[in-house]
Design goal:
Elements: H1 4-19, H2 25-41, H3 46-60, H4 71-86, E1 102-107, H5 114-127, E2 132-137, H6 144-155, E3 159-160, H7 168-181, E4 186-191, H8 198-212, E5 216-222, H9 229-239, E6 243-248, H10 256-266, E7 270-274, E8 282-284, H11 287-294, H12 300-310, H13 316-322, H14 329-342, H15 345-349, H16 360-363, H17 367-378, H18 382-386, H19 393-403, H20 407-429
The structure holds guanosine-5'-triphosphate and magnesium ion (MG).
Amino acid sequence: MVLEKLSGALNGALRKLLRMPTVDAKAIKELVKDLQRALLQADVKVDLVFELSKNIERRALSKELPPGITRREHVIKTVYDELVTILGEKTEVIRIKPGQTSIIMLIGIQGSGKTTSCGKLAYFYKKKGFKTALVCGDTYRPAAFNQLSQLAASINVPIFGDTSEKDAIKVVKKGVEQFTNEKHEVIIVDTAGRHKDETSLIEEMKGIERSIHPQEIILVIDGTLGQQAYTQAEAFNDATDIGAILVTKLDGSARGGGALSAVAATGAPIKFIGIGEKIEDLERFNSPRFVGRLLGMGDLSSLIEKLRDAEVTPSKKEAKVFLSGKFTLLEFREQIKKMKKMGPLSKIFSFLPGVSNIPDEMKSMSEEKIKRWEHILDSMRSEELINPKLLKRSRVVRVARGSGTDIKDVRELLQQYNMLRKLMKGMRGRRRMKGLPMMPGGLPDMPMDL
Ligand SMILES: Nc1nc2c(ncn2[C@@H]2O[C@H](COP(=O)(O)OP(=O)(O)OP(=O)(O)O)[C@@H](O)[C@H]2O)c(=O)[nH]1
Ligand SMILES: [Mg+2]
């Protein structure tokens, strides 16, 4: 599993949010705190974590929600979006033209995983049906050719190398020439990792680049570096515009989140990730999909679906209760309070066939509105709750002031209440069919003594 620890922590934070009775400012603060802890432990840069927290807090509490989306879903989607943003939204692929030769050169500091990744990439392209070959450009380390040869043999891919030649450029040039003549479609060049710093790395890269003109240069970065990966990626991104990045060792590294976000912050595209020591442990990097997996929730559509399932679903019985009894503002208030636990009205009404003409804004009533209405109803006197007709202008002004809302809000509530009451009156007229079982399209069997 990639970034197991980070994934577990992020998933835990979201699960906690799902269990909260309501998603309010306090719940979001707590979520953000959990996310911060998880990301900082994964070595994500403090600035990035701060930025992400701010964005999540601001967006999560935004007033308007898209229709049909609950506050909970909206918050989860916000977290998802913000994580995708810090990992780079663009998904880029290396395009290999069939029938032509494409040269891919890998560079990177010592031990970053170049040679292993050359083998993985060769396997990746071979599996896609491309005629693939490997060239060993590491003349510095004697065992390098041997290491790459073993990988090449294991996947049955030809390899070129010359252990008696010290000039890497000469060897690489010869190998590329040979494989181009043999009409190989993908030639992958391994290089030495003797560099102390980014500058010498970039120098050598430029030398080989001038002599073989690769279609793609891939900088291999060790994922265990965490946010330190930034300097390497930045120097590389400044030096070449045909560069991509491959982040290795994301399996089992606690700091991989830091490495990925640091690289993305330079604007350099991450095209592949290494997720193990085996030849098949290479993946194209796709940040939305990656974040989905990191959160333990697949892509976003399945995320939303899962969220819907995870939400409390009111039972048929509860739905009946909701529409039963005398329907004054007093009952309305009871139901509003219950709705906080039961979820949006659309769910409740979906249990009642024939109730399709509920105004949309009532069906997808947001949690903010439920709360606001609760405050408004709590500010009314009991005589007003029992007899809403008493609520003339001066009383409406008083209720608005008392509940910290606008007159407009109180009016809206009264209007919605009246609509609902009328609707129920209409249903009561049809109630003579009482006793019929619940049938699709038919009327529900429910006590409604309005
Ligand atoms: N767990 C894990 N190990 C990896 C991954 N990629 C590479 N390694 C390991 O990292 C070590 C170094 O890998 P190499 O491919 O030899 O690195 P290199 O960049 O070619 O090293 P030099 O040629 O010495 O510069 C090896 O033990 C690999 O097995 C990965 O994605 N996951
Ligand atoms: Mg090597």
